[in-house]
Amino acid sequence: MRILVAGATGVVGHPLVGALRARGHQVSALVREASRAKAPDADAVVVADALDPQALLSAVSAARPEVVVHQMTALRLLRNDPAGAFALTARLRTEGTANLVAAARAVGARRLVAQSIAFAAAPAGGPVLDEDAPLYVEAPDPGWAATVRAVAELERLVLGSPDLAGVVLRYGTLYGAGTAYARTGATGQRVLAGRLPLPEGGSGITSFLHVEDAVGAAVAAVESDATGLFHVTDDEPAPAAQWLPAYARALGGPPPRAVPAALAPRLLGWFTAHQLTAARGAANDRARTALGWKPLRPSWRDGLGGE
Question: What per-residue confidence (pLDDT) applies to 77?
Fold first, then answer.
């Protein structure tokens, strides 16, 4: 098939181009002008900013894709400009997705596969939730509420187009090369420096996902006829009390010190405190059944902190 990967320089998009080409597909990589030098080996490279609808339409028209894959975020900016990274990512999930959907429809693409997140659910119900659980659009933190609203809009746009077969892949918390959880990533460095304490109880659940498994799920979604919303996570949702000490040991860092849960938001920031104390995990049964996908690394214990 002719496939366009938008966000082709990202931690998932870059290896995804190679994985699709290895399966015989003709792949065009969509990149911004500033990232052209980092473009992966592809059958073609097209250049546009997804927030410029006319430039994007021109680039997508040049690629003539049958399938469009949306892997666009601005999370590369997290270490130096967290607020800017989240704000730009929210625009890419709303304006950028709307522009990409319009361009895909205009050129006659038949399928759209988009990246979302599996950790945006409201903290209600059991410890592990399926795709029908409500999103945390009314989170008490304004920044996280804005992020979740942008995720909800991306999912609405991708699944709501009547002439595009839409697939949303809600990735778990990514680990592996190039992610925040790599040794050189922001979270890895924080743990190595002893600056990520564990709130008492550590009952927040995280569902992890290795980058290679994210790539594999995207390939499966491109080649499947299934549509809809899918959690793409490993098989072992884990409370912070389990994974954070194990992660610190794998990195060779100090054990995380315990702090009172009530102080966690002030010490860690709202989102990290939420992740470690209240977040729910995500069940991957639907992706396994409908997409025929399963993680090659079924547990975060198979590599978290090892890269």
Answer: 61
Nearest in space to 144 (alpha carbons), one of 2, 270, 307, 279:
270
Asked if 178 and 211 touch (Cβ cutoff 8 Å), the reply is yes
Strands 198-199 and 281-282: unpaired
Tell me the CA distances in angstroms from 195 to 62, 191, 279, one per residue in order.
48, 6, 20
Q: Which residues, in sequence order, are bridge partners of residue 232?
A: 171
Residue 184 pLDDT grade (very low, low, confident, very high; cuts 50, 70, 90): very high
Q: CA nearest 6: which of 53, 43, 60?
A: 60
Q: Burial-class residue 269 by CB neighbours within 10 Å (0-12, 13-18, 19+).
A: middle
Round the average pLDDT of the chain to a whole number and report it. 96
Task: Identify the bridge partners of residue 3 per DSSP, sorted by sequence position.
Answer: 27, 67
Residue 299 to residue 295: CA distance in whole angstroms: 9
Percent of the chain whose predicted confidence (pLDDT) is above 70: 98
Q: Residue 12: its pLDDT value, please?
A: 97
Say how far apart CA 208 and CA 150 lie, in whole Å: 21
Structure confidence at residue 80 (pLDDT): 66
Q: Which two tokens stand for residue 128?
A: 């592990």
